[in-house]
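Sample intake sheet
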Amino acid sequence: MSQVNLEQIAGQLESQSTRDRLLALVSLRNVAPFEAVPLIKKVLDDENLQIRSMAVFALGIKATNECYPLLVNILESDPDYSIRAGAAGALGYLEDPRAFEPLNRAFFEDTDWLVRFSAAVSLGNLKDPRAYEALTKALDSKEGVIQQAAIAALGEIKAVKSVDKILTFAQSEDWLVRQKLAEALGNLPTTKSVSALRYLEKDPHPNVAATAIFSLKRLDEAELIDPSADLSSGI
């Protein structure tokens, strides 16, 4: 992008018009990260919550060396829970292994469920086995969305030892929880996973059944299904 256009975007980001600042942020999608991040930083403390949220999200997409410390600082100090949640989510996009510690702290220490949810999702995105403790603790949450995030993330980190724990959700009343379970089991090749997926492929909700069938196919194609597995048992 030409310097003229970058200067125009910089000017828009300092405009008194919320619309101008929003449009300027959107226009950064085609700008290289090293050019975009200095401009994104201009609105990280914007008075408009939507603009701040977009800017935080953009730091996760336009990754440079500056983005990680900026996002950690926002996660740990911003007074608005939605901005902290956005920072947690953006850290997951970075897929930087250093993010494990701040995300783990956010999960255990933040007082808002949305931040904990975002932290759980991002811990899965990191695919770091150290997240096992936090994610298994999240299974005990009273919030269904956090349970969903934890189940999915345990699959992402390929925590085979979590199978017994997550199978307790096979008869959850929430079909979204059952669907996340079917999805996660596709990453956890054990005989119990196969048996559970055979059970879930008969689920009354079509989305759950379709996910279970897909996960079984995935395990089969990867030759991860043990042919000696007892597929006749229920849950």
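Comment: The chain has three domains: 1-64, 66-157, 161-235. Confidence is low (pLDDT under 50) at residues 226-235.
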